[in-house]
UniProtKB/TrEMBL annotation:
It comes from the Bacteria. Keywords: Iron, Iron-sulfur, Metal-binding, Molybdenum, Oxidoreductase. One of its GO terms (molecular function) is molybdopterin cofactor binding. This is Molybdopterin oxidoreductase. Pfam families: Molybdop_Fe4S4, Molybdopterin, Molydop_binding. It comes from Rhodopila globiformis (Rhodopseudomonas globiformis). Belongs to the prokaryotic molybdopterin-containing oxidoreductase family. Residues 8-65 form the 4Fe-4S Mo/W bis-MGD-type domain. PANTHER family: OXIDOREDUCTASE YYAE-RELATED, TRIMETHYLAMINE-N-OXIDE REDUCTASE. CDD domains: MopB_3, MopB_CT_3. The keyword Ligase does not apply. The keyword Metal-binding applies. InterPro entries: Asp_de-COase-like_dom_sf, MoPterin_dinucl-bd_dom, Mopterin_OxRdtase, Mopterin_OxRdtase_4Fe-4S_dom, Mopterin_OxRdtase_prok_CS, Prok_Mopterin_Oxidored, YoaE_C. Its cofactor is Mo-bis(molybdopterin guanine dinucleotide).
Length: 717
């Protein structure tokens, strides 16, 4: 903390959100109150700016809607009626209910549910794992984001950070593939802009002309879920026209002959019929990508969101090795540089406390599990939600709400706001914001470790997640030394401070400066795969993946989960194109011809900020983007209220008729709150709970629906 003349001081914090940018922030504090936040101008990635979501973070902190005290339900489930109680009363109720449940049904009847409301290493993804593992609760397998991508990337390249995002400034050909950088990864944009000033070409592959696509040199609209075919088509051209870096392929890859054979059938004409991209454009893209070196591919998370999402990432991850892009600074591929951070997940999560045979339930199954659709023994009798808002962010919204209405379900939600999920709680526990807590942050979008120092005292009786689980442990009679550590001790335990990447980084340095670059070289020198050194079993880039044969591959530990591939699973060792799952059966019946995609909102962070005035004002009412041809066919005008529906549910929104979206696709951005939207539903009412091919990833781009003008709905159905 530094004091200045005006009686205020500056505290160094980190943006808490699940966003690749992990901005270093400066908070101005006066009289114990946070007055303003801004980006740290000295941080090479943050560069002084924040985004539209967070640049008024103090308004989130001091919002009149903040939950500041424990509460218990005082009306019917979901009525939103609560009365204030003390922490002691809340904990005593939890103890009594859980003790009964454990005695009658065993601890597996308790289901934790969490994701990344905050991304801090201490308070984030794994904050409650040790507690619930010790208790013996059902393990919640978290595969919200990037799980197919990670599996595919590990199979091909291994857990390597890949490219330094800052090295993009040295690229000559940049493909943003299913990634809306200007909305979702804003602070990466200046590096791309710098490359373009130096002559680089920017290509965006996206069904939608997004903010990012509008800025590109070349926007290639593609049918959702067909990207693997495009990647295979590019390989076809690259191999046929002898644009392969043969020396790189011979030395540092395995399976070229098989890949060549696989790509052989993906002629530009066939790929054009699958993707909707003209064959000549596919040829041009392949040629330019191969010959304009260094070239780089940045994949977005959205690339995995359909039946063949994993194999799509396999296909894209083969491309840089095929053309030798890894040889030069500014070349290669960017998935998540998170793998560079030496986090000791096991110290946070305590997998050693999991008893063998403990039940694992994937989080997409929440609705089905609460409704006993797949009979569970024991059934879920209690749900504990923190860092997440499943009613909005998980598919099968209707089913989840129905499940939460169960009178016999004991639901506890730790939250900053009374979200669509917290509305259904029996007990609500107040959570601090990032300014009220201590944490330390990795990043999945750059190579800097960031410390978050407490800037103000907690408001009301809110507590950080670390303290929440200390209190719960004490309440449930758990007295392991694990629960005695304070936050700073936890941070010291959570990282391998002797790891080469941590050279020169100490807690003192972080306290002083706020952040530090990992010791992995500079953007000018970091070149991990110029000579192979892939982190796969063979040490090479595996076009033909040896891991496809194994039943021993486990989802990255920090997500918690079970084996990725079971022995005997038919996993294609070569990259493949898998058609969308919903297309075939539903489209032939013709009932649901429109492919719904639900990308991120520019002004919300998942569902966070979906209730706050400035961001809501920016986003406007729940909207759906539709191409003029599809709109005309349904008598939908610009601004018409419409209803989008399929067999799973129905959503009301305002239509925006625009050429920005390709025909046959409609875009319903995610993050709007159900309780604040007309029709009382948001896009996850339409989405299925099925998995992609790898990593039990979601399939948010593999959903079909129909659209009608609201009110005309009954006649059309
Ligand atoms: N403003 C904002 N920023 C965020 C978030 C947020 O909610 N709001 N969330 C954060 C999180 S958790 C994540 S995971 C990241 C996600 O970051 P991104 O992956 O960039 O996010 P999305 O907006 O989901 O998808 C990116 C683009 O993919 C396109 N798309 C959808 N399906 C397909 C497809 O099958 N093929 C192709 N080629 N394109 C497709 C969409 O039209 C969209 O423009 O963003 C992070 N940053
Ligand atoms: N249709 C569709 N669905 C999607 C996606 C999509 O693109 N389309 N994206 C998916 C992806 S990529 C992701 S990552 C997930 C995101 O899913 P979530 O991580 O669940 O995201 P949020 O909606 O931001 O909900 C987080 C909640 O945690 C609360 N919170 C914040 N900080 C704290 C804290 O310190 N303690 C506690 N106890 N609570 C806190 C916030 O107030 C917020 O309500 O959504 C997924 N769902
Ligand atoms: S949400 Fe992302 S871009 Fe916005 S301040 Fe946080 S880290 Fe930076
Ligand atoms: Mo995500």
């Amino acid at each position: 903390m530094t004091a200045d003349a005006g009686g205020t001081s500056l505290v160094r914090v980190a943006c808490p959100h699940d966003c690749p940018d992990t901005c270093a922030m400066l908070v101005t504090v006066g009289n114990g109150r946070a007055l303003a936040v801004r980006g740290d101008p000295d941080h090479p990635f943050t560069r002084g700016g924040l985004c539209v979501k967070v640049n008024n973070y103090e308004k989130r902190v001091y919002s009149a809607d903040r939950l500041l005290y424990p509460m218990r339900r005082s009306g019917p489930k979901g009525s939103g009626r609560f009365e204030r109680i003390t922490w002691d009363q809340a904990l005593a109720t939890i103890k009594q209910r859980w003790s009964n449940i454990i005695e009658e049904s065993g601890p597996a009847a308790i289901l934790p549910y969490s994701y990344l409301g905050t991304e801090g290493i201490l308070n984030g993804l794994n904050a409650g794992d040790a507690f619930f593992n010790r208790l013996g609760a059902t393990i919640s397998e978290r595969t919200f984001c990037d799980s197919a991508s990670c599996t595919a990337y590990f199979m091909t390249i291994g857990p390597s950070p890949g490219m330094d995002p800052e090295s993009f400034k040295y690229s000559k050909y940049i493909i943003l593939w299913a990634c809306n950088t200007i909305s979702t990864n804003l602070h990466h944009w200046p590096f791309i802009a710098e490359a373009r000033q130096n002559g680089a070409k920017l290509v965006v592959i996206d069904p939608v002309r997004t903010r990012t696509a509008r800025e590109a040199d070349w926007h290639i609209p593609i049918r959702p879920g067909t990207d693997a075919a495009l990647a295979l088509g590019m390989m076809h051209v690259i191999i046929n026209e002898d644009l392969v870096d043969r020396d790189y392929v011979a030395q540092y890859t395995v399976g070229f002959d098989e890949l060549k054979q696989r790509a052989g059938s993906y002629t530009p004409e066939l790929v054009s019929s699958i993707t909707g991209i003209p064959a000549d454009d596919i040829r041009t893209l392949a040629r330019e990508y191969a010959t304009t070196q260094p070239s780089v591919i940045r994949i977005g998370v959205a690339i995995e969101r359909h039946a063949g999402g994993g194999q799509t990432v396999r296909a894209t991850a083969c491309l840089p090795a095929l053309v030798g892009a890894w040889r030069r600074i500014g070349g290669g591929m960017l998935q998540l540089p998170i793998w560079a951070f030496p986090v000791k997940w096991e110290n946070l999560m305590r997998p050693d406390w999991i008893t063998s045979g403990t039940r694992v339930l994937n989080q997409w199954r929440l609705g089905a599990a609460l409704m006993q659709e797949e009979p569970l023994d024991p059934p879920i009798r209690s749900l504990f939600v923190y860092n997440s808002n499943p009613v909005v962010v998980s598919p099968e919204q209707q089913k989840i709400v129905k499940g939460l209405e169960r009178e016999d379900l004991f639901t506890v939600v730790s939250e900053q706001f009374l979200t669509d999920t917290a509305q259904y709680a029996d007990i609500v526990l107040p959570a601090t914001t990032q300014l009220e807590q201590f944490d330390i942050m990795f990043s999945w979008g750059h190579l800097y470790l960031t410390l978050n120092q407490k800037a103000i005292e907690p408001l009301g009786e809110a507590v950080p997640n670390t303290e929440l689980f200390r209190r719960l442990a004490r309440t449930m009679g758990l007295d392991d030394p694990h629960w005695i550590r304070n936050d700073e001790d936890m941070a010291l335990d959570a990282l391998d401070w002797t790891h080469p990447a941590m050279q020169g980084i100490t807690m003192d340095l972080l306290k002083q400066k706020g952040w530090a670059r990992l010791a992995v070289g500079t953007p000018e020198t970091y070149l991990p795969h110029a000579e192979g050194n892939f982190l796969t079993p063979s040490g090479k880039c595996e076009f033909k993946a040896s891991m496809a044969a194994g039943g021993n591959f486990v989802l990255p530990l920090f997500r918690q989960g079970s084996n990725e591939f079971q022995p005997g699973d038919p996993v294609d060792p070569l990259p493949a194109y898998t058609p969308s799952r919903e297309k075939a059966p539903m489209a032939t019946s013709g009932r649901y011809p429109l492919n719904v995609i639900s990308p991120k909102s520019h002004a919300f962070l998942n569902s966070s900020y979906g209730n706050l005035p400035a961001q809501l004002h920016h986003a406007g009412e729940q909207v759906v983007l539709v191409n003029p041809a599809d709109a005309r066919a349904r008598n939908v005008g610009d601004g018409s209220p419409v209803r989008i529906f399929n067999d799973r549910g129905s959503v009301e929104a305002v239509a925006k008729v625009t050429e920005d979206v390709m025909p046959g696709v409609i875009v319903a951005p995610m993050g709007y709150w159900r309780s604040l939207s007309r029709g009382g539903a948001t896009v996850n009412a339409l989405n299925p709970a099925s998995y992609a091919d790898f990593g039990r990833a979601p399939v948010f781009s593999d959903t079909l629906a129909e659209m009608v003008v609201a009110g005309a709905a009954m006649a059309a159905e």
